[in-house]
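Revision sheet: structure tokens.
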Amino acid sequence: MMIGSRRLASRLTALVLTLTMLFASEALAATRYSTLEFGSRGSDVLALQKALLALGFDPSGTDGKFGRGTESAVILYQTSKGLTADGKAGTQTLTALYADVADSDSSSSSTDTTTTTTTATNPNTLQYGDSGDRVTELQTALTKLGYDPNGVDGRFGAGTQKAVIAFQKANKLTADGLAGTKTQNLLYSLASAADSSSSSSSDATEDSSSSGSSSSSGFTRTLRKGYTGSDVSGVQTQLSSLGYYTSTIDGVYGSGTMAAVSAFQKKNNLSVDGLVGSKTYAKLYSSSAVASGSSTTTDSSSSSDSSSSDSSSSGTTTYASLSYGSSGDEVKALQKALKNLGYNVVVDGDYGSLTQSAITAFQKLNGLTVDGVAGALTQATLYGGSAVAYDSSADTSTIITDDTGKATGPSVSSVKCLYWYTEVKPTIKSGQQITIFDPATSLQWTLRLYSLGHHADSEPLTATDTAIMYKAFGYTNTWTPKPVYVKLPSGVWTLATMHNVPHLSGSIQDNDFNGHLCVHFLRTLEECAANDPDYGITHQKAIRKKWKEMTGIDITD
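Predicted:
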């Protein structure tokens, strides 16, 4: 009996000791993390942001500052894990977060050994905050492979970081947002393969024996829509000297540059795709390059308007392909011809949304491929003397009357000014629709959300929405912020600003809008200055100014 009691006592002692160690361990774990919340700063916040980013929760930058973007990312993570979604990273949240990151790291079959999960040690590594030509090259390669860095601007911001992570995840590399040697090698290898494939198909029919003092020795990459840089400025300058490009030389490869390149390719008997490949580049800088005003005969076997059937001209008349963003006398002549046939267009020499809509309607009624681009066949038909005039009964998709789009809109008192990262972005998703009301014109139209980053990339839902929006902006395309009221999918109205310039990519093919636009919501000036210091700040100032007009209240953060 005594022996049994001793054994029982020994077992109880061991149990108590085990429980004591367990509770001590749990207590130690419970005090391991300090709570991080809005306003916190330092290395702990930086580690939090990188962990969130590695799991796909974008904190809008890894800068060691716990701002609204980080708060929003924490809320989204907490929601996904069934934790209390208060936006504060306490012990429970941090423990789960870092465990998930560890699981993610251990499941990777390949690692980018030149980088770490905290900070880059290899001088070749590109990371958040870097800038310059190497970042431009990185962004160009990402864009080429379909990973959107939110523009090719030479600045490694949150958009570039997110694109790098997406690329790393897709290729089974450590998703840390650092572009180390292994990430760069694979990225450039894949981009080069894609570029070679593009160049071989688009430049295949170009004259491979272009003569002249210049050659493709200065060629570094195939230029296409959305690219920026000194090489784009150089091409614009050369096109301008030859009479093809009449817009501002800004180093941005937009629709106007693409149209000028297409016109140059057509005039010089090159394959017309609007891209500056090695052969187009060599011809452009050669002494044999044919200027815009020179007399030439179109080689219909090598020219095309795009990938459409609008690919030839009549006789020996050569027409430069005109598209959104083009400007000048040729555009003005095009608009006059359209107006004479009854199409809704303003004769101002600028190929904007209204002209694009008119060309689209013209192509529909004249049995041409409908792409909104005034190529050789479209212009030959327009100027040929037998073009079909506008018929309202045959095409009403983009025609608006004085009353189209008119609405009363919400009362000013019912419009809120919601923060983007915490009050708007978590409640919406790509593909949803939002209603835009312009208090300056009482016009209303619908946008579909395209992608969500520092702002809402969106696109007009229909061609009619594009026409209404274009009317609200005074039939001009401008980057100047316009204050608008936005009705969210929840039914709540909030103040925002937007522009109406189509750029980069879009997903709706028949809305007469070639690309997407941006809708900006309220953000803190501190966060915006860190992640979107130029154009973003311009929108934030416009939002604050309008809110002051509406309520008399200053937004100070």
